[in-house]
Amino acid sequence: MKLNSLRGRLRWMIVAMLLIVWVPLAIYSFTHTSAELEEMSDGRLAQAAHTISALIQRVGIQGLVGNEPLLASVQKKKVVQAAGDVPTWESEVGYQVFDKHGKLILGSANLLTLPASPSDRSSFLDLQKAHHIWRVYTYVDKTNDMVIRVAERYDTREAIIQTLWLEHGLPFLLGLPVLALLIGWSVTRGLRPLVALASALSSREPGSREPITLDHAPLELQPVLSALNEQLGRQEDALERERRFSADVAHELRTPLASIMLNLESALATDDLSEVHDSLAGAHQSVATLARRVEQLLALAKLEAGAAASAPVTIDLLAIAGDVIDELTPVISRRGVGLGFQPKGEPVLVKGYDAAFAAMMRNLLENALRHVPHGGQVQLAIEQNTHETTLDVIDDGPGIPPERRDAVFARFHRESSSHGEGYGLGLSIVQRAAGLHGASIELLDSPHGRGLRVRVAIPASSNAAPTPSDPRLWTQ
C-alpha cells in the first residue's frame, strides 16, 4: 500500500500511534516491574535471614550443627529433589552464620569464599564472587549474638525478568504484524463508501441530473454527498446556460451576419457610388442591429448566470427610470411615441441589483415602444406602499389576447403586431430580473380600453427605508 494513499496513511498512522503509546508504557512497565522484583527479592532475603534467626533461637546453634539435613551443603550444580524431579536453584542462593567474634559457624558451601561485609548493622550489599555478583543481606541478630548473611545471585533475578518479559512481550511482538493486517482490513472496509462514491461518479451519465445516492451512507459522508449533489446541480445549470447561450448566439446572429455579408458583397460588386453608399448604409444598419442583439444576448446570459450574486444594495427606482428614459430618448423620438412618467416626489427605494432593474425597465419600455403605432402613448408608473412596490408599463397598442399571454415569456417569442426589429428576448430578460428579487409579473388589460398593462410587483421585503426626497419629472 502506497503511503500517499488514504488507506495506507490510516493504516500506518494507527500502527504508529499504537507504538507511540505502547513503547513508553512498556518501558515504564519494565522499570516498575524490575523495581518491584528487586524489592520483593530483597524482602525474601530478609525473610530468610529472620527465619534462620528464629530457627537458631528455637533449637540452638548446636542442634543445627548436629542436624545433617539442615546442614546439607549446596552443590555447585542444580540438585533434583526426590519427589517429582522438580529442579531447584540452590547453587544460586546461600547463607552464612557468624558468631559474635566473626567466626563462621554455619553456612552453605557456595558462599565459603564470599568477601566479608560490615557486621555492625543490618544492610543490603552487592558483592563480587568469581564471575558473579551476589545480592547479600546482612542481619545482625543481637538476641543470639550472631550475624546472619543471606545471598542470592543476580543472574537468578535477571532470568526471572527475562522469562517474565518473554511471556508477556513476545505475544505482542508476534501479534503486531497480525494487528497491522487487521487494521488494514478494517481501514479498507471503512473506506468502502468512498470507493462506492467514486464508482457512482465514474458511472454517472453526462448531463444527468439524478442525485448521487449511497445505501447506508455514513453520517460523515452525508454532508459531502449533499454538497456534491448541489455542486453537480449548479454545474449542470451552468452547462445548460452555456448550451442555450451558444444556441441563442447561433440562431440570433445568423440573420444580421448574412445581411452584412450581402450588403458588403453588393458594395464590392458595383462601381455605382450611390449603390455602394446604399449597401454600406445597409451594412452599417446590420452591424448596429448585430451589436444590439449581442447586447441583449449578453444581458440575458448574465442574468441567467446569476451575475447579481453579490449582496443587494439600496436602489432608487426613480433614478434608474430616469437613466433608462435618457438612454431611450433617440428611440422614442424616432418612433414618434409619447412617453409619460410622473414621479410623486419621494424616492422609491428597494434592495436589489441596479443592472437587473435597469434591464427590466429598458426591455419593458422597448417592448411597449415596439408595439404601439406612430403617435401612440406609453406610460411608466412606479408606486410604493407598505406591502409592495409596483412598476407599471402601459401602452395603447394592439395588446395581447389573454390566451397568448403566457407564451410571450418564452425565449425568442415575437407577436405578429410588433413593429421594428424585435428579438423575442425582452420579456424573458424581464422575467429573469424579476425572479432575482422575488417579484411577480402580470400581463393585464390596459385601462385605456386597448393595449397592454405589464405590472411588476416587488414584495415589501425588498423595500428600503426612504431618504430625503429628490423629485424628478420625465416626459416625452
Can you walk through the features of this model?
The protein is α+β, with helices and mostly antiparallel strands and 476 residues long. It folds into three domains: 6-74 and 87-174, 2-Layer Sandwich (Beta-Lactamase); 222-301, Signal transduction histidine kinase, dimerisation/phosphotransfer (DHp) domain (Helix Hairpins, Orthogonal Bundle), CATH 1.10.287.130; 310-475, Histidine kinase-like ATPase, C-terminal domain (Heat Shock Protein 90, 2-Layer Sandwich), CATH 3.30.565.10. Helix content is 50%, strand content 17%. A hairpin with a 5-residue loop joins β1 (93-98) and β2 (104-107). The protein is rod-shaped and about 150 Å long. It starts with 5 loop residues before the first helix and ends with a strand. Residues 67-89, 415-423 and 465-476 have low confidence and may be disordered.
